[in-house]
């Protein structure tokens, strides 16, 4: 039976199952080093605070604040510069939100207010809200900073002024002499041999480089560019390549793609990861002198590689003067052919390795993704047939389940290559997923599409990937409700959430500060690298830190020890960049 003959319940079920599996397998964790929290949020009664998008709201966006469950029935919006009341509104009745438990609160909706300026919300007997801005350019700086964060996480490069902007560091992990681990050895490259595997991004709070997580991360950023090229044409990130005539977003992604290209063996297979055997300490890259290895091979690594390199071969073609895009496409097809001949080879963690696994044992979604990207790049009919043969039910994408990504590519770039019936089938089932998310948003007293099942490792990436799904639906239909639901996700990560934190470093009145990120923790600079997205609340408590709450949406600590809620990762920042770009490029 074709998967799209299933009813809508199957979409929900897949989404739930993938979320659950991510909570157990999302192994972009670092090490189990823990300590007592230094800045516990537990001393603050967050239920007594007014929660707002701490950065602000665009003029025509939905504007909602969460307020304590007070007896008052109205609220005032005050101009922060003049202290004048500029708007009055009624509070909602008392509500609760299942992921946050039984705590009651009210909503203050001021969506009809469309003046620009800086404002705060006032309610009798309650501390005033943080000052926030209403303006159409409220997200511009954040977008650029969230993309610039990848520069700060480059491996194999010294970060220097004028690009560092106060966050200079020495080169670490040149990776010019990487050892082939026994798990990745072949006759032509035996264990102990050396290879050159430079560049790339540090994956998360550690110093590993992982093909699987680079897959969804690079794709999401490539999609941001390919859907909004004019937005990026003259956008200057102040990186070393900024004057080369290529959009800076593509310069930054290419730093990672160049590394990915080095991870392919001569037979088309792809090494799963490049890490040391154990976790690095709390130290800067230059201080980590552990031997580094290419470790393992897997079907998932080959297919992530094939999908991304095929997509990249199209995106970079207008800027290619040396033929590298054709090399990428050949490499992508070689990886596909190897995966077809090794279609059930999951990554197996060797006994002497502790670094993140990114393990996966179900590959039909990756096959469908790679097939779609190769079809778009080559127009070979066998890839189109393979896509429909492997096509899976759609859910919010994650590194482990990517079935909705080929749908995005085909709906955006492949209409002329599909029959009307094929296009309609993909669109219909994609919109079915978007409508489920929209329904969750409309039913949520927090104005967000998340349910309790979404509070897994990296829950903030879940809500932003939900926003990405919703924004594709908006592009397909021009129905504003989808866009409103997407902006609800931004408001959530920027402070309108039960923890009262802005989950983005350096942005908002109360941003996270003690992220699990070795560079930020070890560089001697008080502030963390800006615009990094923390993983977010979830009650798995895998790190053993001293959490007070056990509710999914309130189990969070802004502390180094909390790598299960406060680590950062390249696949978490990517949907933040995408969502901002899609909104700003309108």
Keywords:
586 residues, alpha+beta, Immunoglobulin-like, Glycosyltransferase, 2 domains, five-stranded mixed sheet, 12 strands, 37% helix, globular, disordered N terminus, Ig_E-set, Ig-like_fold, carbohydrate metabolism, polysaccharide degradation, EC 3.2.1.4
Which secondary structure elements does this structure contain, and how are they paired or packed?
Elements: H1 8-25, E1 56-57, E2 64-68, E3 74-79, E4 85-90, E5 105-109, E6 117-122, E7 132-134, H2 140-152, E8 178-180, E9 194-195, E10 209-210, H3 211-227, H4 229-232, H5 248-262, E11 271-276, E12 292-297, H6 299-315, H7 324-341, H8 364-378, H9 381-390, H10 404-413, H11 420-443, H12 459-477, H13 480-493, H14 518-522, H15 563-566, H16 570-584
Parallel strand pairs: 1-7, 8-12
Antiparallel strand pairs: 2-5, 3-4, 3-6, 6-7, 8-9, 10-11, 11-12
């Amino acid at each position: 039976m074709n998967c799209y003959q299933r009813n809508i319940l199957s979409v929900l079920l897949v989404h739930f199952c993938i979320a659950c599996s991510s909570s157990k397998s999302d192994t972009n964790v670092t090490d189990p080093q823990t300590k007592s929290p230094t800045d516990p949020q537990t001393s603050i009664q967050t239920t007594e605070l007014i929660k707002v998008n701490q950065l602000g709201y665009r003029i025509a966006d939905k504007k909602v604040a969460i307020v304590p469950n007070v007896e008052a029935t109205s609220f005032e919006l005050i101009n922060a510069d003049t202290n004048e009341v500029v708007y009055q509104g009624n509070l909602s009745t008392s509500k609760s939100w299942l992921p946050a438990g039984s705590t009651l609160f009210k909503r203050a909706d001021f969506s009809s207010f469309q003046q620009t300026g800086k404002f705060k919300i006032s309610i009798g007997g309650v501390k005033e809200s943080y000052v926030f801005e209403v303006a159409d350019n409220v997200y511009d700086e954040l977008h650029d900073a969230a993309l610039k964060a990848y520069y700060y996480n480059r491996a194999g490069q010294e970060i220097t002024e004028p690009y560092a902007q106060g966050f200079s560091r020495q080169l670490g992990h040149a990776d010019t002499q990487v050892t082939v681990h026994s798990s990745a050895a072949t006759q032509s490259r035996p264990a102990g041999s050396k290879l050159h595997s430079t560049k790339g991004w540090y994956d998360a709070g550690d110093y590993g480089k992982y093909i699987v997580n680079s897959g969804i991360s690079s794709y999401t950023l490539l999609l941001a560019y390919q859907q909004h090229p004019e937005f990026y044409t003259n956008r200057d990130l102040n990186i070393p390549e900024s004057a080369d005539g290529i959009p800076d977003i593509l310069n930054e992604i290419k730093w990672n793609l160049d590394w990915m290209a080095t991870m392919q063996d001569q037979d088309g297979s792809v090494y799963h990861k490049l890490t040391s055997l154990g976790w690095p300490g709390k130290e800067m890259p230059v201080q980590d002198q552990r031997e580094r290895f290419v470790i393992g091979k897997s079907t998932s690594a080959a297919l992530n590689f094939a999908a991304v390199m095929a997509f990249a071969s199209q995106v970079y073609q207008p800027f290619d003067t040396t033929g590298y895009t054709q090399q990428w496409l050949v490499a992508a097809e070689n990886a596909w052919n190897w995966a077809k001949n090794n279609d059930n080879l999951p990554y197996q963690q060797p006994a002497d390795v502790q670094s993140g696994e990114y393990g996966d044992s179900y590959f039909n979604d990756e096959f469908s993704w790679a097939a779609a990207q190769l079809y778009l790049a080559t127009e070979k009919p066998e890839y189109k047939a393979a896509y429909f043969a492997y096509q899976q039910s759609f859910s919010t994408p994650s590194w482990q389940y990517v079935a909705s990504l080929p749908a995005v590519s085909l709906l955006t770039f492949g209409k002329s290559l599909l029959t009307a019936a094929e296009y309609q089938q993909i669109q219909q089932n994609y919109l079915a997923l978007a409508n489920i998310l929209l329904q969750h948003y409309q039913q949520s007293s927090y104005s967000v599409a998340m349910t309790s099942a979404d509070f897994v490792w990296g829950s903030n990436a879940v809500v932003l990937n939900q926003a990405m799904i919703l924004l594709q639906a908006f592009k397909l239909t021009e129905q504003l409700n989808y866009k409103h639901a997407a902006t609800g996700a931004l408001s959530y990560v920027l402070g309108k959430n039960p923890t009262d934190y802005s989950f983005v470093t350096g942005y908002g009145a109360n941003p996270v500060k003690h992220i699990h990120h070795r560079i930020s923790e070890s560089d001697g600079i008080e502030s963390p690298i800006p615009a990094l997205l923390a993983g977010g609340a979830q009650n798995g408590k895998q790190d053993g830190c001293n959490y007070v709450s056990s509710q999914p949406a309130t189990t969070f600590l802004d502390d180094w020890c909390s790598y299960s809620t406060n680590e950062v990762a390249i696949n978490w920042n990517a949907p933040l960049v995408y969502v901002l770009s899609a909104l700003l490029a309108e």
